[in-house]
Write a structure and sequence with these properties.
Elements: H1 3-9, E1 16-17, H2 27-35, E2 43-48, E3 54-62, H3 68-84, E4 89-93, E5 97-102, H4 117-121, E6 125-130, H5 134-143, H6 146-151, H7 161-166, H8 173-190, H9 195-213, H10 219-225, H11 232-235, H12 239-252, H13 268-280, H14 304-318, H15 320-326, H16 333-343, E7 357-359, H17 366-383, H18 390-400, E8 401-404, H19 408-423, E9 443-444, E10 458-459, H20 468-471, E11 477-480, H21 491-500, H22 507-517, E12 522-528, H23 530-533, H24 537-549, E13 550-557, E14 580-587, E15 596-600, E16 621-625, H25 626-629, H26 636-642, H27 645-655, E17 659-660, H28 661-667, E18 671-674, E19 687-688, H29 690-693, E20 696-697, E21 706-707, E22 714-715, H30 723-733, E23 746-747, E24 760-764, E25 774-777, E26 787-791, H31 795-805, H32 808-817, H33 830-833, E27 837-838, H34 842-861, H35 869-882, H36 887-906, H37 918-935, E28 942-949, E29 956-964, E30 971-976, H38 977-992, H39 996-999, E31 1002-1006, E32 1009-1015, H40 1023-1040
Helix pairs in contact: 8-9, 8-13, 8-14, 9-14, 9-19, 14-15, 14-17, 14-19, 16-17, 17-19, 31-34, 32-36, 34-35, 36-40, 37-40
């Protein structure tokens, strides 16, 4: 096999050549090819979505052999790709082998001594495949083919674990640069430099290197500062020259970025630390001698948008309190790109460049920079030529780009980032040094005396206070990532929320005030998902305004991404953050208002491709009825996050039940309460109780489903769990060690004491084996405040409640309606349990109590493993009967517990992601045919299903539905699904460049057949999914007719 044969075999013949002259290239492909032209690669394989946004996925290079000169070129190319950050894999192939290089790994540090490229490159090699070995070719095709890339199977396939082990996202350029900056800042601080000066030095260096690497500074500038110098690094060898350079730049940038204080004192040694940081990084390893002119970081490649991320991460890591205080999180470039692809696309037909854009909390300017670049592109579309004129670029910027930000340091970074974006377009790029080309004053901050004049674009203000200058401008687009949180609220936020009756949450005034900035424009803002799910009245007031007085086009709920592992394919935010969503809306109600709102909520952070950034997988898109969304107390946002419209209908049906747990407790005079709270730092009046100190105690994790034995109890001192609590008690009792404590008799709060004598029913906030956990306890025991207890003298009532609340139905209902589970914390709150509907039937009541007794007997008599599955199945069936749950609804509930809950809790290890079993597709085929045949009843036409042979490596699964005049059982084809899919993919690619492996979900009609294509994961081929897919097909058929 030749090298080209292997490239054809793995499907990468669809890669685009770097020197492509194809006139039909999408705009986004052209931009990437232009960016990577000097990388030393031959071709790029792209993923392209349905809106023609193309994302680079793999770089390819062909070589004659892997000799030392070639290996040196490979190392250089990998370094450039690493600086580019967007691509994980670099494929280099000859006529005999292919080597896969890891572009998330830090490049080789090239030293002067005889550098052994062959040996060192093995550190960034993922795998080498020889073409003469068929087994190796099979693995190459399975793990690194186009299909594997398009479907992202490396994130889930067991055989791909070695790839996941090699990919360390924390070693990527942005993470490594931030780590280097932090280490350098710490060393400088240890040497006595003030933090403020360290920030200034690092920022100035970042900015200068961006200018230098992009050709916007030259020897002319440096030699005027110090004769004979050609670069910033040479200037850094001289303290006086460094200070002089900073002063020169202060003049050029109008004080908008550089302000040099009289008292700035810094040594050559400190400047050398900064130099090392930017040449080879600083990961606290000893200095090594490098090749002349060799550098790790290349700011001609590192995107300007990353400057915001690098700066904000650096700032927040060196000042963590600032992040907490301001409620701000940096916005990843991929999220910015995702939002602006929708609201500011740059396709060839997009020619309107006169769009006033405001970011009301612009931080260091990432939305503004990307928006400006897109306006430049639109200008070029209109005028059919490159925009390189200084005056026109300056006017485009000052006429259209606006931001508000409270933090003065951040707004300076925003100004510089915009200067960089402007300078990046100039020809020649050094023209800004000309006295006639003054960069615009952008910043408006009356408190900053270093500004030579006030600008009219970036306002250092409190957005929520009245700002006449900004409010007099009418904006066409408001976009951004406002701060969110409920602590440390400013007076302006508190007053604004009080004025409109909104919840005291930082983000709400920004969402509301955006409509004043853009009364006729469009708005896209990121916010905290709790705004959609919080049930309190003040949050309902906000939702009433948003969905009744505004036109909401769509909502993206990315809450699940908060759990993404740092080294996993789905990580969006670099740091732990709260659950986020994005809302697209505008003020007022248009005449042609849609009766649906598009709602996208992924159920897993595991990516279904390997491209950088955020790609929507439309398996998680729902259209919610506007009428329901307009109800302030609706639970649809939470239900639709984990379920579909049929789940919503079932939840509604259950909510209509006359009585719920809360009413049942009151009616039967059942006491209920959470338990004890131990002392902590904030306890002002400890409560002493000697009776409680004599009781046993049960920790929440020791509570078992249905019944808990006494053997799970501990002493009262088991209440002490975390460090803060233990320290409070050691101090209170004046002892040094935990085992010196007496039985504790003092607490912060005592609730639930009247329940401790038993018998009682206890429940904890979390789940046990994917299900809710309620436990009957027949003896005295104390518990803590994360446990809710119920007590009555009537043991049968407690056992009845235990049976229904441990059922699949209760788990299903409560997880779907809980405003916290799956959004922020994995817990069910007591007030949510009270909402579960209660239906009573004397006979079923008795049956459930008997079955509960049978489980108790098993638990009491068991020596080790307890199996009560068969009894539990009976309980579930009785509960379904009690609530009149139909067979389709039962399937919905079972699939939710088996797949959705399991996926949320176990993510990449969930059985929801396991490959489909043949019997599962047969069952799916039978069910979808039955549903369609019920619809076609009486029309002398039948639907028959054909299923295909699969192996577990098939990334997609397909079944065929055929329409005929006779009804048949499900046909099992002897054809392998992979071959059929490849044929169809080839046909669709030739027809309209559509890629089914990247799209993943497709209903494709060909003559009398419909092909249903979905990922090869069990969650997509469940019985409830068959019912949902049948409904979708029926709707399509009706719409066609």
């Amino acid at each position: 096999m030749t090298g080209q044969d292997v490239i054809d075999l793995i499907g990468l013949d669809r890669a685009t050549s770097i020197s492509s002259v194809d006139k039909n290239l999408t705009e986004s492909k052209s931009i990437v090819l232009n960016q990577v032209g000097e990388f030393g690669v031959d071709a790029v394989y792209f993923n392209t979505d349905e809106n023609e946004n193309s994302f680079p996925a793999v770089f390819l290079k062909k070589v004659e052999s892997f000799d030392s000169k070639t290996l040196e070129k490979i190392a250089d190319a990998q370094k450039k790709i690493w600086n580019y950050k967007k691509v994980l894999f670099f494929y280099v192939y000859s006529e005999t082998e292919i080597r896969i290089y890891n572009c998330s790994e830090k490049p080789l540090i090239v030293t002067q001594n005889d550098f052994n490229y062959e040996k060192e490159l093995q550190n960034i090699e993922i795998k080498v495949y020889k073409f003469s070995d068929n087994k190796q070719l099979e693995e190459l095709n399975r793990l690194f083919s186009r299909i594997a890339i398009d479907t992202g199977i490396i994130w889930t396939l067991e055989e791909a674990q070695f790839i996941r082990d090699r990919i360390n996202l924390q070693r990527r350029v942005d993470k490594y640069l931030v780590a280097s900056l932090i280490n350098t800042a710490q060393l400088l601080e240890q040497q006595g430099l003030a933090v403020n000066l360290i920030h200034k030095l690092i920022l100035r260096s970042l900015f200068l290197l961006y200018l230098e690497d992009r050709g916007a500074t030259d020897e002319n500038l440096y030699s005027k500062i110090k004769n004979g110098t050609k670069s910033y690094f040479e200037i850094l060898d001289d303290v006086n020259a460094t200070k002089k350079l900073f002063e020169v730049l202060e003049g050029h940038f109008n004080g908008n970025v550089f302000t040099v204080g009289e008292d700035e004192k810094i040594s050559v040694e400190q400047l050398q630390l900064i130099k090392k940081c930017f040449i080879s990084g600083n990961d606290n390893i000893p200095q090594i001698k490098l090749f002349d002119d060799w550098r790790l970081f290349d700011f001609s490649i590192i995107q300007i948008e990353l400057l915001s991320e690098i700066y904000e991460n650096f700032l927040f890591k060196t000042d963590p309190e600032l992040k907490k205080r301001t409620g701000t999180y940096y916005t990843p470039p991929s999220l910015v790109e995702f939002i602006l692809n929708e609201k500011l696309p740059t396709g060839k037909d997009e020619k309107n460049y006169s769009i006033k854009i405001l970011d009301p909390s612009c931080g260091s300017g990432i939305f503004l920079v990307e928006s400006f670049k897109r306006l430049v592109k639109r200008y070029e579309n209109q005028h059919k030529e490159k925009l390189t004129d200084f005056v026109k670029l300056k006017k485009l910027l000052t006429d259209n780009i606006f931001g508000i930000e409270l933090h003065p340091q951040a707004i300076k970074v925003a100004a510089f980032s915009l200067y960089l974006a402007l300078l990046d377009n100039l020809s020649p790029k050094t023209i800004w040094q000309n006295k006639n080309h003054r960069l615009p004053n952008l910043i408006n901050n009356p408190n900053d005396k270093s500004l030579s004049a006030e600008g009219k674009n970036l306002f250092c203000r409190d957005t929520i206070l009245e700002n006449k200058e900004i409010e007099n401008i009418e904006f066409d687009l408001v976009v951004g990532n406002p701060p969110f949180g409920t602590t440390d609220l400013s007076e302006s936020i508190r007053n604004y929320c009080s004025k409109y009756g909104f919840g005291k949450e930082m983000v709400l005034p920004f969402l509301h005030k955006a409509t004043m900035f853009a009364p006729n424009g469009e708005i896209v803002l990121i916010f905290n998902t709790k705004v959609l799910t919080n049930t309190s009245g003040t949050y309902q007031n906000f939702r009433k305004w948003l969905f009744n007085e505004c036109c909401v086009e769509k909502v993206y709920n990315f809450s699940v991404l908060r759990n993404a592992k740092q080294n996993f394919g789905g990580q969006l935010f670099g740091d732990a953050t709260g659950p986020i969503s994005i809302v697209f809306y505008r003020k007022g109600i248009p005449q042609n208002l849609s009766d649906k709102i598009a709602y996208y909520a992924p159920k897993t952070y595991i990516k279904s491709n390997i491209v950088e950034g955020l790609n929507i997988d439309f398996t998680d898109l729902k259209y919610l009825p506007l009428e329901e969304c307009q109800k302030p107390d609706t639970k649809i946002w939470k239900v639709a996050m984990w379920g579909g419209i049929k789940d919503w209908q079932l939840v509604l049906k259950l909510l209509e039940t006359e009585k719920n747990v809360g009413a049942y407790l009151r009616e039967n005079k059942i006491d209920y309460s959470v338990g004890l709270q131990p002392l902590n730092n904030s306890t002002e009046k400890p409560i002493v109780d000697n009776e409680i100190s004599k009781l046993s105690f049960i920790r929440p994790e020791k509570i078992e489903r249905y019944y808990t034995n006494k053997s799970n109890f501990s002493t009262i001192n088991a209440l002490l769990k975390n460090k803060e609590t233990i320290e409070s008690y050691l101090e209170y009792y004046s002892v040094d060690k935990v085992y010196d404590l007496p039985p504790i008799n003092v607490f912060r709060r005592i609730t639930g004491k009247n329940l401790f004598s038993g018998p009682m029913l206890l429940t904890k906030e979390g789940l046990k084996n994917n299900q809710l956990c309620f436990s009957y306890i027949d003896s005295a025991v104390a518990y803590n405040s994360t446990v809710l207890g119920f007590k009555t003298g009537n043991k049968e009532i407690l056992k009845f409640l235990s049976s229904i609340l441990n059922s699949e139905l209760a788990t299903y209902f409560l997880l779907l309606i809980s405003n916290s589970w799956g959004v922020e914390r994995e817990r069910i709150k007591p007030n949510e349990i009270y909402e579960f509907p209660i239906t009573n039937d004397i006979e079923l009541f008795k049956d459930l109590v008997k079955l509960h007794d049978a489980i108790e007997v098993k638990i009491k008599n068991a020596l080790s493993y307890i199996d009560f599955n068969s009894i539990e199945k009976e309980i579930n069936e009785k509960v379904f009967n009690l609530y009149n749950i139909k067979s389709g609804e039962k399937q919905l509930i079972k699939d939710f517990v088996e797949f959705s809950v399991d996926l949320f809790l176990k993510q990449e290890k969930s059985k929801a992601l396991y490959p489909v079993l043949l019997e599962q597709t047969i069952e799916y085929g039978k069910l979808i045919s039955d549903e369609l045949n019920n619809f076609l009843d009486g029309q002398d036409l039948f639907t028959n299903a054909t299923v295909y042979c699969i192996n577990r490596f098939s990334p997609l699964m397909m079944i065929k539905l055929s329409f005929a005049i006779e009804q048949n059982t499900v046909v099992i084809s002897e054809d392998f699904v992979d071959e059929e899919l490849k044929k169809m993919d080839k046909y669709l690619w030739e027809e309209n460049a559509s890629n089914i492996y990247f799209r993943k979900k497709l209903n494709y009609k060909k003559e009398n057949d419909i092909y249903i294509i979905r990922p090869n994961q069990r969650r997509f081929w469940s019985q409830s999914m068959a019912i949902e897919d049948a409904s979708e097909l029926i709707l399509e058929i009706l719409n066609e007719n």
